Amino acid sequence: MRDRELVVTGYSHGRTLYAYYEAEKLTEISVGVSDRDTLRIGDIYIGKVQNVVKNIHAAFVDVGGRQVGYYPMDEHPTEIYRDIFHRDKLASGDEILVQVSRENQKTKVFSLTSHIHYNGEHMIFIANGKSLGISRKITSAGERRRLKEMFAKWKEKYDTPNDGVIFRTCSEKCPDEILEEEYAKLAVYHKNIMSTYRSRTCFSRLMRGPSQAEQYIRNFPFTGSSRIVTDLPDVYKELKLLEGNILPEGILEYYADDYPLIKLKSLETQLERALKKEVHLKSGASLIIEPMETLTAIDVNTSKYIKKKDDNEETFFQINMEAAAEILRQIRLRNLSGMIIIDFINMKDPEHYTLLMDHMRKGSKDDPVQVNCIDITGLGLFELTRKKVRRPLFEQVRAYD
């Protein structure tokens, strides 16, 4: 059995479809435009401030090609100006160094930041970040101490007193010399950008962020028992360059059969299911998923569940536990984010609600995106939040439909 599989293939209107499997079960599916010439999260530009809107403490910055992003000034006490002689306060016409931090969502433009970072295989280098972050999935006290001590030595050795780092999960038990080599490489890369950006023209792109396919590879530890398959020549060539580096050799395959890959994997059917409001459970119950403007509501519906004479509290508890596991899968599959309210089947035993909450918290740790299980309200509604990273699946699909 493959531990992980990534399928990258073409979709309608020239878009690209990504399907990610864990233990041969579809876990994530997303649709993106061909990003050869489009903005990517992680791109670094010299942008020009188009205008400053004081009442929302934000600026709108043009990064070229009539692409204007949102720059929240409250989050940036200082800007990185291209001109060494600049005004004390950000103003229209100023040229600053920015990085794309979030793609556009609904009517909102993409977001920009001056907190520059660089993605590595085992870590994220945070320029002027100072602080240390370690993946919450690394639970060993000894391992966390090792990483902390290494980082303290690196700051002095590579003269990076004001820079920070976030260690990815895959850094656990990784040899010291490999981690140090990666940190040194990222530190040098940042210093090169900072020493040359003033000589570059406005709207120059100084760094290209990873493609969506590369992001999958960086976010998940693909091993020798994993598989990546694509029928797109450009994607294959791009990922081929990563073999032997962040991608194990021998797991990348180019699909050249006449029968379409999208049909071989039934991805159109899978995508259609992931967009439906109703999801059926094995017990006969179902989930009704309703994404709205400010939140997503999920109802555990028993309308198709055939009640039996011996139905009792324990039965409803088991259905709720089944629903909880599928809800966590659907949230990740559909890339739902923000506030999510879940209406489980009513139960009388408070202990069952406690066990249900524990089950949700434990299961949410498998999600690479931050999930916070908040509480169960007095009305029995379960509240959780999920960090916004990309547009939800239904927006991705409907963008060009």
UniProtKB/TrEMBL annotation:
Keywords: Hydrolase, Magnesium, Metal-binding, RNA-binding. This is Ribonuclease E/G. PROSITE patterns: S1. Residues 42-115 form the S1 motif domain. Its cofactor is Mg(2+). Pfam families: RNase_E_G (PF10150). The keyword Hydrolase applies. The keyword ATP-binding does not apply. Coiled coil: none annotated. One of its GO terms (molecular function) is RNA binding. GO terms for biological process: rRNA processing. GO terms for cellular component: cytoplasm.
